[in-house]
Structure formats: C-alpha cells, structure tokens
Amino acid sequence: MQDAADEITLRDEEGELRPEFLHAVEAGLEAGDTKTVRELALPLHEADLADLIQLLRPDQREPFIAMLGHDFNAAALSELDEGVRNQVLEEMPNEAVAEALQQLDSDEAVYVIEDLDKQDQADILAKLPSFERAAIERSLEYPEDSAGRIMQTDFIAVPPFWSVGQTIDYMRDAEDLPDRFYEVFVIDPSFHLMGSVALDRLLRSKLPVNVEEITDSDIHPIDVTSDQEEVARTFERYNLTSAPVVDPDQRLVGMITADDVVEVIQEEASEDILRLGGVAGESVSDPVWQTTKHRFIWLFVNLGTAILASWVISLFDATIEQMVALAVLMPIVASMGGNAGTQTMTVAVRALATQDLGAVNAARVIGRETVVGLLNGLVFALIMGVIAFYWFGSGQLGVVIGAAMIINLLVAALSGILIPLGLHALDLDPAIASGVFVTMMTDCVGFFAFLGLAALWLT
How many other CB atoms are there within 10 angstroms of residue 43's CB atom? Predict the structure, then answer.
C-alpha cells in the first residue's frame, strides 16, 4: 500500500503538498479507482490527510472519504478548517461520524462536533457507547473556548496509598488509558487533587515505595471554566507538559496536554490577526457568498470613516483650489499617520492579548509611544520638508507639511495605544475595532492639520 504513495513525493521544499500528488488522487477519484486512491491516501498522517481533503473540490470530498471507508483516519477531522469540517460532517452519515468519534480522544471528539446543530449532535451522541457519550456531553456543557472544552477526560489517577508497583501494574493492565500521558495524578477518595507524579520519577522509584512519598504537590491545576488563552499562558509561564483540570470543588475532571495548547496558541494568534484585518472567523475554504457577506460589515464601517475624512477635506476646498500642491501631498500625510498608527496598535493589541500591557505599566507604555511618535515625526518632518521644498520650490510648503507630519505621527502613536486600551477597559475586543478607529483618527487629524496649517499660512 505504501508503494503508490512513495512513487510521488508528498510535499515540496516549502512543505506544501505537491500538485502531482493532488492530481494523482483527483485522477483516481474521477476514474472511480478506489484501489489507487486508497494506496495514495491511507499511509498519510492525519495532518497530511486533512491538507489533502481541504485541497480537493467540495464535490470530491464525500466520494474520497467513502473510498477510504472504515480505514478513514478520523483524527484528520480535528485538523480540518471549520468550514471544510462541517461540510464533510454534513455529507457523512451520522453512523459514520459516531464511529469516527470513537477513534478520537474526548477533547478531539468535542472539537469535531461542537459546531454541529443540536439535532445532529444528539443523534450522533446517541449512537456512542454510554461512557464515551457521557464524557463528550459533559465537556459540551462547559463554555466555548474554556478549559473544559479542550481537556481530555481520560487520565490516570491513583490513591496515595498505592505502591509504585501497583501503579505500574494498573497502567499495564487498564484498557481505558489515554494514548499519551506524562504524569499520574494523585487523588483522595473524593477525587480531590492532591498532587502528581511525573512518569520519569515513577519509573525510577523502587516498587514498594508508596506513591504519596514521591508525589509533587507543587502543581498548577487549571479551573475547568478558565479561558483557553489563560490556559496557554499558564503552560508558557510554568513550562508545563501537561496539567490537571479541576472543578470549583477542586475535584479532578480532566487533563490538558501540550499538544492541545499548541493548537490553542495557533488558533488564538490566527484569530487576532484576522480580527485586526476585520475578517475574524474567515478561512480560504469559506464559500464566496459567506465571505462577501462577512467582509461587507467592516467595509461598510470603513466607508463611513472614509466619508468623514473626505468631509474634513471638503472644509478646505478653497485652499486646495489655490494651491494644487496640497492635493498632491495630502495622501503622504495620511498614509504615514495610518502606517504609524497601525504599528503602535498591532504591538498594543498583542501586548493586551498576552497580558504584557495592563494598568500597572499602561502609563509607562503610553509615554514610550508618545516619545517614539514625536521622534519619528521630527525625522520625517525634516525629510518631507526638504522633499517639498525641492519638488515645489516653496519653503513655506515644506514647513507646513513638516509640522503636519509631526502632529499626525504623534496623534497616530497616541491613538494606536489609547484606542486599544480604551476598548479593553470597556470589555470590548481591541483586535476587532481598533483598526477602524485608528485609521479614522489619523486620516481626519492628518488632513485637518495639513490643510488647516496651509489655510492659515499659505493663503
């Protein structure tokens, strides 16, 4: 089965799936050649299989999965973009989805079906064994993007009076252990968390030693309702490989591992970038109409701010008529302010997201950005003043655009830090709305400063 896949190199030097591999799979699908498709696809890692599914046309995905049949690696479902995953799940019979979920850890199973409508969820869950169904339903009850949604409910917990030998025998014989684990949790009879024992320490201890003697009580349990961003910060702060998840009564309910946190970090970073661009929740696999509708809202808001900037310009139409050079230089002032504001805003939004910026150091950071804006303003004022003088032969025009550059870059720096801080203080996501307001401020202030100074000095 490996031979057909080996004949065509899977990925190129940049890590992308090679076109010839994709074309070979598509040719097999078009010809109805199940044998070739299976030989190419079944050896793939779940991440590679997910990439292949996403590159296939929507009408090719269902027959592709059907050709793989019971050998389809269900772990690929958790690697798919949300839009593609939902489309695949809609085309798969609920019986097949239920069968696929049984191959996954509880956290991956929750991730796969959490966005399905309630009726489909209930139907799929009803087809699962009672123990697996209860674990998934319990996780689905927790808030979205919380620790309860990303935790595994399969973990190893032992009482403190067990010996090392008993614990190892239990791990050797039990059938419902997680696929991967890095520590054994120690609990009391009420399932309250007492500590943990790392596997390396367990294996290096004598068999008769009680687990209590080697238990590490300096642990960092995560509340089941904690936001996944806070979970990621906890892992980063304490260099964790795994962490126990506890309910409000400090009873052990699950476990989060480093691979879960890597996915959270990637998801949150992608989300922040998309929000800064006004395209939160969008992916390249979304349908055209959905993408158009999604982008329309922020484009409409941008239209409003652009009209406001144009209105500011209209206040000085007489001044522009007297000196055409002003119309030539206006975009430079606005563009420089917009770029400077975006730089400051991006740093501020990211610092807020990682909790590197808060009430304790806000004043210091604002002061720093003010000085940076002022210094950049002075440097670019000098540059643009000289350019304007040689371009249009007017020293006064050079002074005007230089002064406007100082004002706008200073306002850009202040807007880039104060607007995200203000939105954050109002419990609004600064990544979503900061860009629109910063652009509005830099455009309006830039045009008003440049044209206002020109009206006072040049006319």
Answer: 16
Task: Please give the Cα distance from 72 to 404 (Å, whole number).
Answer: 63
pLDDT tens readout for residues 24-53: 999 999 999 999 999 999 988 888 899 899
Q: Which of 254, 194, 191, 196 is nearest to 222 (CA)?
A: 254
Helix and strand totals (H; E) in the chain: 21, 6
pLDDT at 283: 66
CA distance 101 to 127: 10
Res 2: pLDDT: 43
Is 223:243 a contact under the CB 8 Å cutoff? no
Which amino acid belongs to residue 279? V
- According to CATH, where is 1.25.60.10 located in the chain? 2-142
Counting every residue written for the chain, the total comes to 459
Would you list the DSSP string of 360-390? TTHHHHHHHHHHHHHHHHHHHHHHHHHHHHH
Fold of 288-457: Tetracycline Repressor; domain 2 (1.10.357)
Class for domain 2-142, per CATH?
mainly alpha
Do residues 257 and 231 touch, judged by C-beta distance below 8 A?
no
Q: Say whether pTM exceeds 0.85.
A: no
Domain 157-257 bears CATH identifier 1.10.1270.20: no
